[in-house]
Amino acid sequence: MEKVLEVKDLKISFDTFAGKVHAIRGVEFDLYRGETLAIVGESGSGKSVTTRSIMRLLAKNANVDSGTIMFKNEDLNKKDDKAMQKIRGRDIAMIFQDPMTSLNPTMTIGKQVAEPLRKHEKISKKEAMNTALELLRLVGIPDAEKRLNNYPHQFSGGQRQRIVIAIALICRPEILIADEPTTALDVTIQAQIIELMKDIQEKIRTSIIFITHDLGVVANVADRVAVMYGGRIVEIGTSEEIFYNPQHPYTWGLLSSMPTLETQDSLYAIPGSPPDLLDPPTGDAFYPRNEFAMQIDTEETPPFFEISPTHKAATWLLAPQAPKVTPPQEIVNRHQHFQKIMKERELVQKKLREV
Amino acid sequence: MKNFGKYFLKRVFFMVITLWLIITVTFFLMKLLPGSPYANQEKLSPEQIEILNKQAGLDKSVPEQYVIYMKNIMKGDFGTSFQFKNQPVAKLLRNRIGPSLQLGAQAIVFGTFIGIILGLIAALRQNTWVDTGATLIAILGRSIPNFVFAVLLQYVFSVKFKLFPIAGWNGFASTILPTFALAMSPLADTGRFIRTEMVEVLSSDYIELARAKGLSYWEVAFKHGLRNSLIPLVTLLGPLAVALMTGSLVVENIFAIPGIGEQFVKSIMTNDYPTIMAVTILFSALLVVVILIVDLLYGVIDPRIRVSGGEH
């Protein structure tokens, strides 16, 4: 599969009055054409900072300390602001969290949707408006031609998020970054927006980076999932692998704290609190909250251990010398389910080969 | 549009009521002022004063005078000045309002324009020396009285460099220095307002979205930031515009401008009832009209408070 984006060894810190906050501490991932990669993790784990650094929309006190972001054979970290402006909105576009505040209240939506096109392409006002109209229809705004001259306050939250999506898609970007696009919406509207995004991805073959802390949403949209903790990716794999064959204790915790219909007792919560990134712990950042932590977790940062060609996790539990541990019951159930799926799949493939 | 017409008529109706209230209250308050129009003219004998009072209708009871006055202004008759060469008040003001209005308008346009630019630059270059400089200008403009600026401007530009006439009312050149002097306070106020507002607007989500579209910093500031930070400014501008257009006594005096401010104070000192009333009516009429304009401007700038509304 063709890589559209390759992030390597990304380190970002913020200068604050209290000191340097090491928000991103060596993030690495690839994004393939047409796929949806979900980045999950709790607040402060660095999901938003990672994606904002791809767009270079970081706050002024941010420093990119190291790393490369390869896009179309060029390192985005080496580009100047002018060059980044040409990429933003055209090659890489973004959808934000709160549709109630992410549209300009004093500009008609027609103008707002057409704006990236007017900026990036030599196109007449009329043509741009026509394309904007097309996009508004595509994202499902009813009576779009009548509503081009309306202002954001005349639309509902769900419709506004559709408009934001239209803005992001108007230049047919290669990469769409969606920063918790459904968090601020009602559950029913969430489902509609997710359906819309899947639908559109099929139509224009864009790659999506989907940031969320809602694992239910992830299961619904993502081809692959990256789990972030303390400024690093701790586990990455296909949705199936992350949901049914998780290996990192943090992923176990995340999945166990997700409510299901069978949840009867109180919901599981990971004990402790996220690491202080002003002074990040050595070793595995998760060890203070990890009931399976070993001596080495406090001393050395675990490397990625490969579980399958698509699945790797950074935990010392996967080291050959590590003792065998029994994950929580919930996870054991998931592993069994995974084994079952894999067996069935093998059978199917075997039969296919015979045929 | 039908909604708008209804709204407009309603507003005009309330404007008339407001004006009537102001006229009535001012009329009776004015009668409470100590002294009478001719009392301080020592050359007149008591008999002569009585004749003059009778001629001006001042011998009647105050309510009677009020009814007569109201009837007269309905007909557009504002009476005759007691002091200024017995001229009709309307004519007196007509000659005087021009310079005051012109100066005020020039000052407000110049002041807000420069103020907006100053505030914008300060906000966009937040916490740099540019920002500090702009803040300093705003503080000076706000705290130093405009007559001090007036004298300073006269000294520098007229006495030292001889660029502009020092005083008088002869053509555009003579309006420049008084305009600068008057513009300082709107400039300072606008600058401060725009800076605060712009800093807030620049941190909002739609600004980030605009950046994500690939717009440059300045495009974002002008296309998305400016209009949204103008909304509170409009509130400030209304009363300020009236204050400036109705004349500034001291500045008009320093530059020897035949404006209305000077006349207003003189008329109060001499109990020149018709002039006091006429100037009050003029000022309040200007104020209510400006307030209406301000309310309509809100709608132009911010679609969310537009009266006619759109379809939902």
TrEMBL record, chain A:
This is Peptide ABC transporter ATP-binding protein. Residues 5-255 form the ABC transporter domain. InterPro entries: AAA+_ATPase, ABC_Ni/Peptide_Import, ABC_transporter-like_ATP-bd, ABC_transporter-like_CS, Oligopep_ABC_C, P-loop_NTPase. The keyword Nucleotide-binding applies. It comes from Vagococcus elongatus. Pfam families: ABC_tran, oligo_HPY. Belongs to the ABC transporter superfamily. Keywords: ATP-binding, Cell membrane, Membrane, Nucleotide-binding, Transport. GO terms for cellular component: plasma membrane. It is a peripheral membrane protein. One of its GO terms (molecular function) is ATP hydrolysis activity. GO terms for biological process: peptide transport. It is found in: Cell membrane.
From TrEMBL, chain B:
Keywords: Cell membrane, Membrane, Transmembrane, Transmembrane helix, Transport. It comes from the Bacteria. GO terms for cellular component: plasma membrane. Pfam families: BPD_transp_1 (PF00528), BPD_transp_1_N (PF19300). It is a multi-pass membrane protein. The chain crosses the membrane at residues 12-30, 103-124, 136-157, 169-188, 233-256, 276-298. One of its GO terms (biological process) is transmembrane transport. This is Peptide ABC transporter permease.
